[in-house]
Write a structure and sequence with these properties.
Radius of gyration of chain B: 21 Å
Strand order of the largest sheet of chain B: 6-7-8-3-9-10
Mean pLDDT of chain B: 90
Oligomer: heterodimer
Number of strands of chain A: 0
Shape of chain A: elongated
Strand content of chain A: under 5%
Structural class of chain B: alpha/beta
Largest sheet of chain B: 6 strands, mixed
Radius of gyration of chain A: 22 Å
Distance between the termini of chain B: 32 Å
Strand content of chain B: 15-25%
Mean pLDDT of chain A: 88
Largest interface: A-B, 22 and 29 residues
């Protein structure tokens, strides 16, 4: 470890003078974009699926939709995200003739993937809301969908916020595989720095630190949001 | 006003309502009493199709609302409902609770009219005989204002306008139930269904809720009330239905029912609760 100082000096050399920091910033930006946009898409998809899954099932249409949702959730929970990325990027999109930048592909795949997980989280959240709330909404003449969106889902989201924060943290860390399809994330940035001076110890250490700080900031952010949503609750 | 014809409801293999036929006329205050598990609440919940009847019809203003093809949401707007557990919307303030449904319905109507107007305008460009446009003079702001004023007026009526911006979790049971009642009133319903409105209340709060229901009764509101408050039932009812085992066993005026019940099971029930 005697030459650790030297290693740090070489790291700073590449980081500051050989464009290392721009790569890191791009990587950071991509990581956050993919995770956050993925989660937003995931929440939208997950809410819709959860709402379909908790629907009363005596008509035909909800049953068909339910089957489709079960297929989707099974598909995206049943395969690793790396496989989903590779298949989307190298199989599905070329077959459809669509040309997309890698980052957008990643947002799409992470969104679809997290939609499958969020749907189950959201379903739990919806089931945790007192069924009387839905009855009260229906009794004043609001439709199932409107009551769901205005009354049940807001209360469900409040209940599942800690779990959604968890999901965001998982997404942030899982973005470390996006380089499989050529998107530039933190891993790409620090590998670049490392390979530029044949020294990987410090870059990867810094990368780990950045992830930890990111996750801590997200956790703090979720806490703050939770507190502001709790204003209609007795516990403050 | 409401004609119930051979209403049946089963949960799985258990038949809870075994053919109920009755008529609720305008201005009547029908009180439903009976031992627990007799199907009173299920009967009430079938009246506005919160439970879908297994068979039979419920004719409300000439429309069979038990028919699955009917848009039940439109008819429910004219039937208020008050629950045992209040069921105020926990994520809305008191004012938000009262305003939500009227505001949403009126804004949706306005939006639909505006969309229809666009089509009519296009039609009028090409057709000889011009169709008239829907009137859309009231703006969203005006509607909001009106609904808000109406909600505040109702809150003032029960004397807790200072709680307008409070959340339901900070209110007492009596306040919650009175707000639930005026939430139903805000829709200008033709009938209000009360499902054991005082059963979840502390004893000292029962009075304030019953007072409000009594006021509404005096104003001529049509009501169907499921309750265990026999004194209140006797005082407010114009007709008493005694239910047991999913059937109406006795239908009588309150005086006759409470002083001289005809049905043996009604007699037994009354001897236990009075």
């Amino acid at each position: 470890m005697g030459n650790f100082d030297k290693k740090i000096a070489r790291f700073w050399e590449v980081f500051l003078n050989q464009n290392g920091y721009t790569k890191v910033l791009t990587g950071l930006q991509n990581t956050l974009t993919i995770a956050v946009a993925g989660l937003v898409i995931g929440i939208v998809i997950g809410t819709v699926i959860a709402a379909i899954e908790v629907m009363p099932k005596y008509k035909r249409l909800p049953r068909i939709l339910d089957g489709l949702c079960a297929f989707y959730v099974g598909l995206f929970r049943g395969t690793p995200i790396v496989v989903q990325l590779l298949v989307t990027y190298y199989v599905v999109l070329p077959l459809l003739g669509v040309n997309m930048p890698p980052v957008n592909v990643c947002i799409l795949v992470f969104g679809l993937n997290s939609g499958a997980y969020v749907s189950e989280i959201m379903r739990g959240g919806i089931l945790s809301v007192d069924p009387g709330q839905m009855e009260a909404g229906r009794a004043v003449g609001l439709s199932y969908t409107v009551t769901m969106m205005k009354i049940v889902v807001p209360q469900a989201v409040k209940n599942i916020l800690p779990t959604l924060g968890n999901e965001l943290i998982v997404l942030v860390k899982e973005t470390s595989v996006v380089s499989f399809v050529g998107a530039a994330d933190l891993y790409v940035a620090f590998s670049y720095i490392g390979s530029n001076n044949y020294e990987f110890m410090v870059p990867y250490l810094v990368m780990a630190l950045i992830y930890i700080v990111l996750v801590m900031v997200i956790a703090m952010f979720v806490r703050i949001m939770e507190r502001s949503l709790r204003k209609s609750d007795r516990r403050n | 006003m409401i004609d119930v014809i051979d209403l049946r409801k089963s949960f799985g293999g258990l038949e809870v309502l075994k053919g109920i036929t009755t008529t609720i006329r305008e201005g009547e205050k029908v009180v439903v009493v009976g031992p627990s598990g007799s199907g009173k609440s299920t009967f009430l919940r079938c009246l506005n199709c919160l439970e879908d009847p297994t068979s039979g019809s419920i004719i409300f203003e000439g429309v069979d609302i038990a028919d699955m093809k009917v848009d039940i949401n439109i008819h429910r707007r004219h039937m208020g409902m008050v629950f045992q557990q209040f069921n105020l919307f926990n994520n809305k303030t008191v004012l938000g609770n009262i305003m939500l449904a009227p505001l949403h319905i009126r804004l949706t109507e306005l939006r639909k009219k505006k969309i229809k107007n666009v089509f009519i305008k296009i039609y009028n460009l090409f057709a000889g005989n011009k169709k008239p446009l829907y009137e859309t003079n009231t703006t969203r702001q005006q509607i909001k204002q009106e609904v808000r004023e109406n909600a505040l007026r109702l809150l003032k009526r029960i004397g807790i306008e200072d709680k307008a911006d409070a959340y339901p979790s900070t209110l007492s049971g009596g306040q919650k139930q009175r707000i639930a009642i005026i939430r139903a009133l805000a829709m200008n319903p033709k009938v209000i269904l009360f499902d054991e409105p005082t059963s979840a209340l502390d004893p000292e709060m029962v009075g304030e809720v019953l007072d409000l229901i009594r006021q509404l009764a005096d104003e001529g509101m049509t009501m169907v009330i499921v309750t265990h408050e026999m004194g209140f039932a006797r005082e407010v009812a114009t007709r008493v239905l005694f239910m047991d085992d999913g059937q109406i066993l006795e239908e009588n005026t309150p005086d006759r029912f409470f002083s001289d019940p005809q049905n043996p099971r009604a007699r037994e029930f009354l001897s236990k609760v009075l």
